[in-house]
Amino acid sequence: MIEIKHVKKYYGTKSLGLMDESALINSGEVVGILGQNGAGKSTLLKAVMGLTELTAGQVLIEGKTPVEMHREMAFITHEGSYFPHLTPRGYGEFLSEYFPGFNKERYEKLLKFFELEPGTKIKTFSHGQKARLEMCAGLSKMARYIIMDEPFLGEDILTRQDFIKLMASSIKEDETILVSTHHVNEIENFLDRAIILRRGRIAADVYIDDLKNQGKTLQQLIMELSGYSGDRFKELPD
């Protein structure tokens, strides 16, 4: 269980990340953290991981701080958590020492699946290859809490589909996943729930089944909450 209690985050004195937000995420849920750029998605995920100092409030995971639970957590991010000077093989050796539950066999299978050369320096990889390596490492830590911040960034549609199928086939009942992405339509059927942020506030917290019963899609809900109009282009001068 993840408890987000009155979390507030300011960058400097004016830039808002999150404004006094609270949420309870149950164990085993797959939750989309969605919204426009600058809505506070990355800030919320980093707060859950304990990677940012909060202005106020706290995050508890099973009643403990993120720092106390770090060995039970995996952070898969477009920013990358690997060491560029290492090879994927060397990175795997490091992870196996640092994370007791790291599954080296699974890691090597994933490297092969994504056609990543284990003996090549990570710094020579393309952006997409680095994103795939990040996924391989994150899913091999066998963590109970998997936090993903734009894991599909820079990937083509086929690779994104591979990512989603991989996650769907490997998730265990006691694993909790939080994932931020702009590819809402592609991931909607993978989610149990969606928390939609707007300007640092939680604008909606919905279960996907309830949304479907209302005859709505996640994309429609996000557009409604943002006040988006498909006719905006008509306001442009001729």
Automatic annotation (TrEMBL):
ABC transporter domain: residues covered: 2-224
Entry superkingdom: Bacteria
GO molecular function terms attached to this record: ATP binding; ATP hydrolysis activity
Protein name: ABC-type multidrug transport system, ATPase component
CDD domains per UniProt: ABC_DR_subfamily_A
Residue ranges that the Swiss-Prot or TrEMBL entry lists as coiled coil: none
Classification via Pfam families: ABC_tran (PF00005)
Keyword Nucleotide-binding: yes
Alphabetical keyword list: ATP-binding, Nucleotide-binding, Transport
Keyword Transferase: no
